[in-house]
Design brief:
Elements lengths: L22 E4 L1 H5 L9 H13 L4 E2 L2 E2 L12 H7 L10 E2 L3 H9 L4 E7 L2 H8 L3 H17 L3 E7 L12 H14 L3 E6 L6 H13 L7 E5 L6 H10 L4 E4 L19 H10 L8 H15 L6 H7 L2
Parallel strand pairs: 1-2, 1-9, 3-4, 4-5, 5-6, 6-7, 7-8, 8-9
Helix pairs in contact: 2-3, 2-11, 7-8, 8-9, 11-12
Bound molecules: 3-hydroxy-3-methylglutaryl-coenzyme A and magnesium ion (MG).
The site of 3-hydroxy-3-methylglutaryl-coenzyme A has 27 residues, from helix 4, helix 5 and strand 6.
Family: Belongs to the HMG-CoA lyase family.
Pfam families: HMGL-like
Organism: Pseudonocardia alaniniphila
Length: 315
């Protein structure tokens, strides 16, 4: 307890080189929970989604329609979408790898999907059971049909900043994969640092390569895992370049079951603290979000790795 002290707040100082507003694309329920050893009950997932939306997050990735044997943690996707309570004005995208996944997503009434490509050959094989080229053949009919149905389509690119099997990944290779997804019809590209090895100058190099390949900065979102503590610095670098959509995960939940060295994403609370300090609008109630992550940590039986959650939960 804080003995009557007001809770800590960052001093607000605007930086005119940064955007006025950022869209936080919340991935905790999908990227976070897909990596839990235990399967979280569907009622807990539904409550998590509702709390995240009530905390002011406007884009809350809900789950994945992938093969249930590949990601058993999210095998209840259809049940979840049937039973969850949606908050008005909130967008609930889901991951879809192929046409079978799209069929399932459409049957569940989904309006926004995300396909997920790999920048590297090895991860395409491990995560999608496809070669680098075959992944595009799998995604093309998904994107085409989704667009015909009026869905929004995000395209993730994984391993943009390094691959645990292949090592360094050339920025030009990332840009080439990203460009193919945009040409295929993706509205937005999310550049994933799946294993968290990127650093700020590397972010600049990848964004330069994307720009050189004709991808507009407004189409780009960033998706940083915080394995080496670089996620917030990398995010700030991307904001300075004009990126206005940032992926983050409540409480820093996360990882990827097919990339063992991946740990949690940038914690949404840590991002919100930084945005608050720089006067950048985001719409999230930080106290409500910390309460949500503290509740979720209790469900999972271990504390949140987020610095801001730890600081505020005990202040
Ligand atoms: P596959 O084994 O090659 O599948 O897996 P297939 O196309 O050969 O089909 C085999 C059987 O699976 C068929 O059934 C299909 O119907 C069925 P059968 O005819 O034999 O009875 N099937 C499905 N069933 C339900 N839903 C489906 C589905 N698809 C096929 N969607 C596949 C290929 C892509 C399906 C598999 O590799 C897969 O599900 N991979 C998903 C892996 C995953 O979810 N990884 C985590 C997300 S990516 C991530 O976390 C990174 C990110 O956060 C960004 C970052 O950090 O970089 C996004
Ligand atoms: Mg991820």
């Amino acid at each position: 307890m804080n003995g009557g002290r007001a809770r800590a707040l960052p001093m607000v100082i605007r930086d005119p080189a940064l955007p006025d507003e950022v869209t936080i694309y919340e991935v905790g329920a999908r990227d976070g929970l897909q990596n839990e050893a235990a399967v979280v009950p569907v009622e807990v997932k539904a409550e998590f989604l509702q709390r995240l939306a009530r905390a002011g997050l406007k884009v809350v990735e809900a789950t994945s329609f992938v093969h249930p044997r590949w990601v058993p943690q999210l095998a209840d996707a259809a049940d979840l979408l049937r039973t969850m309570v949606r908050v008005d004005g909130v967008d609930y995208p889901v991951l879809v790898p192929n046409e079978r996944g799209l069929d399932r997503a459409l049957a569940a009434g989904v309006r926004h999907i995300a396909i997920f490509a790999s920048a590297t050959e090895t991860f395409a094989k491990r995560n999608l059971n496809r070669t680098l080229d075959e992944q595009f053949a799998m995604f093309a009919p998904v994107v085409e049909r989704a667009r015909m149905e009026g869905l929004r389509v995000r395209g993730y690119v994984s391993m943009c900043f390094g691959d645990p099997w292949e090592g360094a990944v050339a920025p030009a290779q990332v840009a080439a994969v990203g460009r193919r997804l945009v040409e295929m019809g993706c509205d937005q590209l999310s550049l994933g640092d799946t294993i968290g090895t990127g650093t700020p100058a590397h972010v600049d190099a990848v964004l330069d390569a994307c720009a050189a390949d004709g991808v507009r900065i407004r189409q780009i979102a960033v998706h940083f895992h915080d394995t080496y503590g670089q996620a917030l610095a990398n995010t700030l670098t991307a904001l300075r370049r004009g990126v206005t959509t940032v992926d983050a995960s409540a409480g820093g939940l996360g990882g990827c079951p097919y990339a063992e060295s991946a740990t949690g994403n940038l914690a949404t609370e840590d991002l919100v603290w930084m945005l608050d300090g720089m006067g950048i609008r985001h719409g999230v109630d930080l106290d409500a979000l910390v309460a949500t992550s503290t509740w979720m940590a209790a469900q999972l039986g271990r504390p949140s790795p987020s610095n801001v959650v730890r600081a505020l939960a005990h202040s």
